[in-house]
């Protein structure tokens, strides 16, 4: 790994408040207090054994105030849903026996409409803009597509849904808004927070959304689709309000409640939380934990398991300064076979970066200790972090007006493995565990009707399918000819497994 603070005039010496990488081209976008968005091309210097750099690409001017968040729409690794007009990463098929399952694609199919061609930017004063990429003879040009108007005060954080159909924003007006990106209109308002909403995150499986506020609460929202005139619409309702945890006095049986998060005196505009790419857990910054009522609070980030989002599953080791942002590397990696206890028993490794006000920690899910620590590179607070789509670059933005860029050599973080392969392996292992569990409880003559899913190979399509037990035998008798394929979310099978094993 090599890196350093890139000594250029990023935003006219003004604070750099946000950064994000394009999901395909690795173009770096930064938002600053100079009211502009700037696009940069990364320059590798790994062969020269030097820190990476950037070259200026273009400038996007439209905002009339400081830009606090920039996020590109998801990559085009999806297909178009014939049933619901949504873009997802897999295929749901339904046969004549009401079977629901998954088609793992062995290659990515590009979506014609959502392919990182949109950029969302949020700014002070409630400004929220969608930009669209256009190809001209002179090169790529980004132009304003829509202005999303409803927030009354500063927009502090943004995130796209996995299919790129929706956008969630958090604001100083104490609300989160879910936007219909295609229509450019408000889809739903979540206004239960009592103070600034400084971070939002969207579950990659589409079932949950999360928000973090300076009112010292993290809210988890569950998607309970509503039907209007027979049309099913996304509808998020608050399922969990996470605020306090028990703290115990020594030699006393009683416990008291203490706050899990910093209050509004935290010296940062941002509390950027993040879901893991597979949706298995949520990482939440701005933690402030007291083990006893009289002890000093410890700065931390919390890990919430998808199986129980009502309370933290564990905490990361305490940092000297508050944690303000978390971002996951978009790649999954094969296991290294570490002897240390992993976060979760996953068939792959996930890597994520945790930024405090003055330092950066990089973790993987196979070890509780950070694998990289970067400190002392900025004179003011870190505001955002971003991974490139290949995982080779990690960018940090800061209020001191500069950005730091880290570059990793190929295989330095590990051996990447495709999400389809890892999801497949996870499904297969979970199915075997479930079958073994049920077979021990059932007599030999008893039909195992509770077995949730089975798999088979479709020779015609050369892909794996997942079947429910009720229709597996029937489909097999018909040589799988009854399966009719329509498009749906790639992670739906993994979601089904998680819910079936809890």
Could you explain the architecture of this structure?
The protein is globular. The strands form 12 sheets. The protein has a 5-stranded antiparallel β-sheet. Strands 1-35-34-33 form a 4-stranded antiparallel β-sheet, with no helix packed on it. It has a 4-stranded antiparallel β-sheet with strand order 2-3-4-5, with no helix packed on it. The chain folds into 2 domains: about 1-75 and about 115-415, YVTN repeat-like/Quinoprotein amine dehydrogenase (Methylamine Dehydrogenase, Chain H, 7 Propeller); about 80-105 and about 420-500, no CATH class. It has about 500 residues and is mainly beta. The chain is built from 3 helices and 39 strands. It is found in: Nucleus. One of its GO terms (biological process) is DNA repair.
Break the fold down into its secondary structure elements and pairings.
Layout lengths: L1 E5 L9 E6 L6 E5 L3 E8 L9 E9 L5 E6 L6 E2 L6 E2 L1 E5 L23 E6 L4 E9 L2 E9 L7 E6 L5 E6 L4 E5 L4 E6 L6 E6 L5 E6 L4 E6 L2 E3 L2 E3 L2 E7 L1 E5 L6 E5 L14 E2 L5 E9 L8 E8 L8 E2 L7 E11 L15 E8 L2 E6 L7 E4 L6 E6 L5 E6 L4 E5 L8 E2 L1 H23 L11 E6 L4 E6 H9 L6 E5 L3 H10 L1
Antiparallel strand pairs: 1-35, 2-3, 3-4, 4-5, 6-10, 7-8, 9-39, 10-11, 11-12, 13-14, 14-15, 15-16, 17-18, 18-19, 19-22, 20-21, 23-24, 25-26, 26-27, 27-28, 29-30, 29-36, 30-31, 31-32, 33-34, 34-35, 37-38
Helix pairs in contact: 1-3
